[in-house]
Write a structure and sequence with these properties.
This protein is an alpha/beta fold. The protein has eight helices and six strands, in the order ααβαβββαβαβααα. Strands 1-4-3-2-5-6 form a six-stranded mixed sheet. A hairpin with a 3-residue loop joins strand 3 and strand 4.
């Protein structure tokens, strides 16, 4: 077992990054196996793989609202496992039971950012009782980070820049573009990588504060 880094090393980790320094970082996107779940075979592959996982990165995408007071339901759920990133279009109701199973599974830790908002919105699409959720943004804040979004944390801790050009695209489209798929997969993958980085730095040695875990964790 690797020993935890000394406190001096933890203290040396920067807790923020400037726009100028962020702009100097190389852009990275997820380059591993991708599965946009669209067939019964895809669904079974995802189910089999995710049931074996102990830690996944989790993110959602929602079609943007352009009118005041308008809101949209989530359209896509991204789950990053060790072997692949799975993308679930929520218009395909056959994926709902698998996602409910994953979110309710106490043995699998689901790591993401702003999970409370994501979970609240997802419950308007299908029912589940979430277990073992970890909000990396809240963990980062409790560790003294001044910036707690996925992109800033990736820049600080992973040393790369995640592009955000397709964030406001139509995630409810029947056919997602290659750019949308790459963007969505990268966010979930980055969440999983950030969890592993926090762990390697010894910042997850103790149980996170109550506020760092989503309800039901």
């Amino acid at each position: 077992m690797n020993p935890s880094p000394p406190a001096e090393l933890q203290d040396a980790i920067p807790r923020s990054i400037s726009r100028e320094d962020m702009a100097k970082l190389a852009i990275r996107r997820y380059e591993g196996r991708l599965c946009l779940v669209a067939t019964p075979g895809d669904l079974e592959e995802a189910r089999s793989d995710l049931r074996q996982e102990t830690i996944v990165g989790l993110d959602t995408e929602t079609r943007p609202a352009f009118k005041k007071g308008e809101s949209q339901l989530p359209a896509l759920v991204q789950v990053a496992a060790a072997r692949a990133v799975y993308l679930f279009q929520l218009r395909r109701t056959e994926v709902h039971p698998l996602l409910a199973e994953l979110l309710s599974e106490p043995r699998t830790l689901k790591a993401g950012v702003s999970l409370k908002d994501d979970l609240r919105a997802l419950k308007q699409v299908f029912a589940f009782a979430e277990k073992n959720m970890l909000d990396l943004g809240l963990v980062a804040r409790s560790s003294g980070f001044g910036q707690t979004g996925v992109r800033n944390l990736a820049g600080i801790l992973l040393g790369f820049r995640i592009p955000k050009g397709t964030k406001t695209s139509n995630w409810a489209a029947r056919e997602l573009t290659a750019a949308q798929i790459a963007y969505a997969a990268t966010d979930a993958w980055a969440c999983r990588e950030l969890f592993l980085r926090f762990k390697s730095l010894g910042l997850l040695r103790s149980k996170p504060p109550e506020s760092a875990a989503a309800p039901g964790a």
